[in-house]
Amino acid sequence: MIHDPGAECMAEGERRALQAERLRAAVATAYASVPFYRARLDAARLSPAAFAGPAELGRLPLTTKADLREHYPFGLLAVPREQLARVHASSGTRGRPTIAPYTRADVDLWAELCARSLALAGGMPGDVVHVAYGYGLFTGGLGLHYGAERLGCTVIPASAGQSQRQVTLLRDLGAVGLACTPSYALHLAEVAAGSVRLRYGIHGAEPWTDAMRARIEAAFGGDAVDIYGLSEVIGPGVACECREAKDGLHIQEDAFLAEIVDPATGAPLPEGEVGELVLTTLRKQAMPLLRYRTGDLCSLARGTCRCGRTTARMSRVKGRVDDMLIVRGVNVFPSEIEAVVLESPHLAPHYQVVLTRQAALDHMEVQAEWAGERPTDDTAGRAELAHRLFERLGVHSDVTIHPSGSLPRSEGKAVRVLDRRGQA
Ligand code: DLL
Question: 1-317, which class in CATH?
Fold first, then answer.
C-alpha cells in the first residue's frame, strides 16, 4: 500500500518542478524571517529574487550543527515562538541539546511522513502497532506514534524499557508491527524467544546492517525495514525502505531536497558516490534548514523502484562522519565490524569495540558473545574472528568472546564504541 501515491510516485519532471518551486519559496522565507540566513545569503551575494533554484543549489551556504548550537535555543526560528506547537531535542549527550521546534503544520507534516513510512514497511489501517522507541524529547516515540495514528492503526505507546512486559503486550495485544531501534529489536527477540510473530518491524535511529536484518527477520518472521531521520530536520520519516525491495531508503522528496557532498570539502559528489548527506527542508515552517550537513555517510540512487515509487533512495547510513574510527591510521566504521561479527552463526548479534592506547599505539579490542554454549577451548573461535576482522578492516584487533547474555543490551541507541584512547 502506498500512502500518498501523488507524492511518492510523481513523474521525475513533475517532482523537479515542484522541488524547484518549493526551494525558491524556502529560500525566500529563510531570507525574510531568519536573520542568520539573511546574513549568510547577503555574504554569498545571493538574492532570493534572483535565485534560480536547484541548479544553483551549490551557491547556497551549508548549515551545520555548530550553527544550530550557536543560535540555541530559538535563534533560527522563522516564526514567533508563540506559534510553536512542540519542541523536541536531539539525543546527543555532548554539550547543548539540539532543539527541534515544530509549528502545528510541522507536526501534521511529520505525522504524514511517518504514516508514509509505516506504509512503506507494510503497515495498513487497522494494524496493531507497538511503539517501543523512547517517548519524550527523543523524536522516535511520538513520531511513529502520530504516524501510526494517521495511518489508522491501533497504537500501543509502550516506550522503551521493561522488556519482559513489552513481550507480554506484543503477544497479548496482537501487534503486527514493531517500531524500535534495531538493537532493541534484537533484545526483545531474545526475551520473546520465538513467542512473538510480526508482519513488519520499522527500525532506525542508529546504523545497522543486512546481517542484523536477517537476524531480526528470522526472530519475528516478518519484514524488517530501515527508517531514517534526524531531530533537526523533522525526526523519523525523512526516508524509509520499502518492504518489497529493501534496496535503499525512499526519501520523501516533496518535503526534502537531498544532496551528497564530499565531507572534507563540501563539494557536491556525483550520483552513486558515498559522501555526506545534505538536506534542505522544503515544507518546514518553524525552523527551515538550507543545505543542512547531516554528518551521515551514504549514497543516492534514482529511478523507479520495484514498489512503484519514484522517489530517490539513499543507501543505508554507513556511519557518521565523526563516528569513523581511525585506528593506527586506518579508517574503520563500526558497521563493518558488525558485518563481520554477524557473519558467524556461532556468535550472538551483540558486540562492542574498545579502543585504548598501549605503548603509544592504538589498540582495538572487539568484544563479541557466543550465541549458545561457550566451547571449552575458544582459541580457534577467537583466532578465526580476529582473522576475518583483519581481512575486512586491514587492521589488527584483539578478540574476546563472552558467554551468551553478558554484553550490555540497549533499549534505545546502542553504544558500540568505547574510545578510551584519551584516558591515561
Ligand atoms: O534518531 C530520529 C529517528 C527516530 C530516526 C527513530 C529513525 C527512527 P536523532 O536522535 O536526532 O534522531 O539522531 C539522528 O541518528 O543523524 C543518524 O546519525 C542516526 N540515524 C537515524 N536514523 C538512522 C538510520 C533520530 N536508519 C541521527 N541508520 C542521524 C543509521 C541513523 N543512522
Answer: alpha beta
